[in-house]
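User: structure tokens for this one?
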Amino acid sequence: MNKKQIVITTEEWLKLPRSEKVPCKWYWPTGWYEAPFAMMMNDWDNWEKHIKKEYPVQYWLRENFQYTFRQLYRTVKGLKRYIINPRRRMRKAVFPVQYMDLVELVPHFHFQAIIEFVEVEKTFEVTDWSEESISEKGKKLKELYNYVKYERPFLLEKLSMAYEKVEITIEYDPNRYDRVDVINKEIKDRDTELCIWVIQNRDILWT
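Assistant:
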């Protein structure tokens, strides 16, 4: 509630600075009048007559299409926030166009949190990680970032190659996927370690 809009009469409202009674809004070119929060009962009619005369188009729209206009405003505001969302790069990376199961999406979010913190917020440029209290966490953060950016893609390539080398025969071989299982386990273990670290150290993920 804006206390400056608590007036008694239309005259008092008219004496308010323009920035308080008709502030500029990005969605309306001539200013958006603000109705008083409180006013003498017998003076509301005077205020309404003044508004009808000074802002006829805006008054007509707001009184006749109030609900529709409010919904339109929320839609436009939401669209504006969607377009200029500061996390839009991360959002697109976490939620790609192609479908991704939650079993993949959960660790993928944590990967992107690390990348966002290092590449977009540039934590190693704006934060002094040499302090004794956080130096170990800084080293671990670099280690996890290198894993996500370089080591994990390499492991995924090794995994793909391991699958290609598996010989499919009609004979049962319990060791056929040993190499695949080893690489899969390494990826899963390191993914889990990263996810746990992000959750446990989320309080430091700000710049």
